[in-house]
Amino acid sequence: MKREDEALNTMGDFEVQTGKRPPSFDMNHYATKKSAAQSMLDVALLMANSSQLKTILYAGPEYNFYMPLIVLLALSITLQVVVGLLLVFIVRYNLNDVQKQTKLDTMNNMATVFVFFTVLINIFITALGFQGHSMSFDSVVPDIPLKPQLPPLPVNLTKTGVP
């Protein structure tokens, strides 16, 4: 007996034993959940890139990798928006419609490739990103003393200083 026949017999045995058919797998429901999860991750990365862009714009052109980071962040944000739009269109189509399956497959492959390039770009963004010692905010951020300025302790600790 072949492995495929064993799997079919197992499913048939389930139906005979329980009197129920096994639950069907709805591809549309799966694709919708997958797209929603991917969209949430996309939004989180979009927020992180927006924050990084704000920080690099705040640092100004004095930062060594100012222009490369601006270009990489803009490219990453653009790819994320494109992936988000692709996911919206993928969810709108019926996956069980045979005529649209090739189009959906192409759109899904495009989204996967764009996500891959977004990850690569974000690796470079992280590599070129900010280090605590590599940026100087001396003119922008005031010096904060590391030790708080407290009054000196009395020499005789039994005296409270109250008359």
From TrEMBL:
InterPro entries: Ninjurin. GO terms for biological process: cell adhesion; tissue regeneration. Keywords: Cell adhesion, Membrane, Transmembrane, Transmembrane helix. The chain crosses the membrane at residues 65-90, 111-130. It is a multi-pass membrane protein. Pfam families: Ninjurin. One of its GO terms (cellular component) is membrane. It is found in: Membrane. Coiled coil: none annotated. The keyword Membrane applies. It comes from the Eukaryota. Belongs to the ninjurin family. This is Ninjurin-2-like. It comes from Poecilia reticulata. The lineage of its organism: Eukaryota, Metazoa, Chordata, Craniata, Vertebrata.
